[in-house]
Amino acid sequence: MNSPQPMNLRRSVFRALLDLLVTLLLWVYFLAGTLILPFYGMAHLFSNDREATFQGMNSRFYRGFFRLVQWLIPGLSLRIGADVRTLRSTVIVSNHLSYLDPILFLSIFDRQKTIVRSDFFHYPIFGWVLKTAGYLPSSANGDLFSTLMIKRVEDMDRYLSTGGNLFIFPEGTRSRDGRLHPFSRGAFRIAARCRAPLGVVRITNTHRLFPPDRFLFHTGIREPVTIELLALLHPEWDAPDFSLNDLIARVQALYDERERQERERDFAEAGGPDGKPPAEGAGTP
Amino acid sequence: MTREAIEAEIRRIFLQEFEIEDPAMDVDLREAYQFDSIDAIELLVEIERFLGSELTMEEKKRAMDIRTVRQICSYVEELVRARRPGESLPIGDLCKEGS
Predict the structure, then answer these.
(1) Thinking of the domain B3-98, which architecture would CATH place it in?
(2) Does the model's pTM come out above 0.95?
(3) Domain spans in chain B, listed from the N-terminal domain onward
(4) In the A/B pair of chains, how many CB contacts fall below 8 A?
């Protein structure tokens, strides 16, 4: 009979090898993406609306990526709210946990724009795809980026009115501890400028599927990856007492409330004493 | 148009549009108030309203490097001069710019 320790070791080695294999296959998918470059080239030459065509092609490519992820990791549950999928002409704000978050949004929406790290625009081919798809640079430093930023923001009203979505992670960067970090105003400012509805979306567990400091996908993930619409807000932009800071605080409160509910549920499921909710801060690292 | 008038208008815009009350003249707006490039583009809309004329792309791009309220005032002053070449600022106002 095997002792438990070598069994655990064998299981860990098997799991690590599986993680490596799945990650490599997913990278192969990415590299195979170069095979569809001729289609981008043809769209560039012949499409009447290059921006929309590129966005649609990006969306299909990443839809294929997540189909492959689900096929390779059968235990993964990917739950995307139906009300998220139907969002249109909306500025979407979301928490940010993993590099997977933006491409998950790309896969959901046919028409989508977002803010991308400025240095990515300098990459050959990738930068061209980003520029043609109409994405926004993260900074406005230098001639190229200031021109791009101004044009994109000024055109946003037209873009949203034709059914496109703009998704932004107002924390600016991935959260390393799963907690919400202070929001920057950019997304809210653009929504106000365009008088657009504001979709407040919450992502969970993508950091468990592809952790921030790890090269490998985690194939043993047990928690479902979810994308949930917390609220679709239609602020009274023109009200005399409208305040962008108040709106941001309201959105942050929505996330806080949802996290509190989740903590209470987890605590109850874990059989907390008397089924009472935990005190504030309990159950967090 | 005097430097004081420009400064008063910029302060009004900061209070009304950005909810920033009485910003110091030389503080870095990005660091102090997280005033980012999207805010700056919104500020340009307000400046266009104030001037009653549209800015060119070159003028807008120049604004992207601005960091302080004093720089914004100088920027608007230049725009006023460019639109009304004959109009000069009172000497006192010009001295203030360098102070």
Answers:
(1) Orthogonal Bundle (1.10)
(2) no
(3) 3-98
(4) 43
